[in-house]
Amino acid sequence: MTVPRIRAALYAAFTLALAMLGGTLHAAARDDVIVAIQLEPPNLDPTSGAAGAIDSVLYSNVFEGLTRFAADGSVVPGLAERWDISDDGLVYTFHLRDGVTFHDGTALDGEDVKFSLDRARSEDSTNAQKGLFAPIETVSVIDPLTVEVTLSRPTGNFLFDLAWGDAVIVAPESIATIATAPVGTGAFVFDDWRQGDRIDLVRNPDYWGETARLQRATFRFISDPRAAFAAMMAGDIDAFVGFPAPENLPQFEADPRFQVLVGTTEGETILAMNNGQPPFDDVRVRQAVVHAIDRQAIIDGAMFGLGTPIGTHFAPHNPAYVDLIALSGHDPERSRELLAEAGFPDGFTTTLKLPPPSYARRGGEIIASQLRAVGIDTEIENQEWAQWLESTFNGKNFGLTIVSHTEPMDIGIYANPDYYFQYGDPDFIALMDRLNETTDPEARTALLREAQEMIARDYVNAFLFELAIPTVAKVGLSGLWRDQPTQAVDLTAVGWDR
Amino acid sequence: MISRSFVWGAGLAATFVFAALLSLAWTPWPVDALDIPNKLQPPSPVHWFGTDHFGRDILSMIMVGARTSIAVAILAVGIGMGVGIPLGLTAAVRHGGWLDEIIMRGNDLIFAFPALVIAILITAVFGAGAVNAIIAIGIFNIPVFARLTRGAALGLWQRDFIAMARVCGKSAARISVEHILPNIASLMIVQGTIQFSLGILAEAGLSYVGLGAQPPTPSWGRMLADAQTMVAFAPHLAIFPGMAIVLSVLGLNLLGDGLRDRLDPRLRIMRA
Question: What domains are there in chain A, each with its CATH number?
Fold first, then answer.
């Protein structure tokens, strides 16, 4: 053989090998995905657990409600194909989709809807958002595909409320084991939960809607920012929704293997003050704390610029939002005056309890330094989530704490005097009652604005910023939600493009 | 004769002690004031070691961090010596008796756990913080000193001058304090130096996993932990605290070796 021939033969062999390799790659186009989120759900029943991680895994994937949130936050038909609302706004008639079955093969009918709603609103219900169901007076089944819900008062937000993860439809046949083996109607069937490690879902071939693109989806739980970075860089996971280390996003953006999506959430991140105990029962002290804080420094220092400043407990992308930041500008001088007026010319010492996310841990160090500048000393205590929930949230054993409230439209928590920051001003409660009875959208907006202003002027908490949610994914994976209108990692439209 | 390792070790250790003491009165920049707009600055004539993710001066942080490390390590070694040496002396007196058994088996029990695991256990149960870190590190120092003391004391109890003291009617406790202790002092100082360096490492380890000194108290271990996700674009965040840990531990070990060469009579005789 001559040299050119050898070269030609080599070239041919090389081309053939490449072609075969390409063929293999093509044949192996993936239909599974490994998605990481920060926290593992404590159980798998979205209708009784408060933990947002339950909805992250199960909302829309496994469980569905009569209505649901779309990726843009709008409320769209879910298991109810359509509905009629009586003129007085009291009677909702839901027409269910035909041919919907639960994953155990039983059919979805009106009885399941009645069961789910009655269970959620019963005396002994452990539903975390029981208030959503409070306006319901009766639920009656007209025929297997028609359910009539009668309300005791007009409730302008009722269809929105039914889209929450806490209002999903469950079946009486499988309710006993829902916490460990959830059975829903969604595009994915729950497969396996290895506690501390992963939850596996597989495609539901009998789904009523569009069949999922993925055959198998695995959720993994990584809360440590360093481990999250390492796992993503090593390619162990395909996507991370809610990536915990914002400082690493530029690295992912610069890396051709990854795509980064930064979306909005419903997470109002606040420095909560214990309004029920001195010195924070004094509005002057609360105002002093608020004026001591420089929001932009926290957004830049803790979140590397991710996040939108807020001046009240409301999402800035909501049309009803009022910009009240001017009420709580950074003004250490004013802060010291207020402290002196309140009887603390030399400041005081309080506790600052910090749950694991970096907005809290890093934000806490920044806030501690800002408060020290006006004379307020803080004893920082870093807590794990379980510890934070038990002692800070349920036990109300704190002076200050930082947390993000990710539920949509949750300003109503300020009407609950037993909620951990213990506000519950009677005027505010009356305002919320009026809001709940109002259906006219303009009147509702006006009341919502009034409510936002009331808590901002009462300096209930220090409102810091609206949490942004970064999602890091391998290039080629499409269909992930960018924004988080509700806490959910909806995989029904997710798949690989090559 | 002064060995070279003694000089190097003493020099490094003295540098860190000096930095820690100086930080009580003065640091180039304040460590409790954050300066977010100036975060993650690389080393420069203004900030010799650069700034961290909150805009704090890393040199100042390391100086104050040295104070944290040294304070924790000194107190922890103090606990180890204060409890371990009397236990070892007692065990040597009651050699072969039930008290000796109890003390030594108790030490074995503590020794059986890896040091850091005990420390994590203690801080997990009693809460994170510098005080609990000191207690935790102190506890695993106890068996080290107890064993060393007992072994050395047992040898001394066989010697003629001790027998002489007993004949004179001195009590065991008095002999332990007046004769045994001075004779094992140099051994203890050498071991103390080594334990001191291990204490610095343990403190850094505990802080790294979040169980040591809590923010805002600067600590080398936490500086490293904070740096970890940023090493790729701000390596100075990890390099300087890492160097501080390496150099201080190296210095103390060299110092320990040097001291042993100087203080151990057997080595002195061998050289002569």
Answer: 32-39+180-263+469-496 (3.40.190.10), 65-171 (3.90.76.10), 265-468 (3.10.105.10)
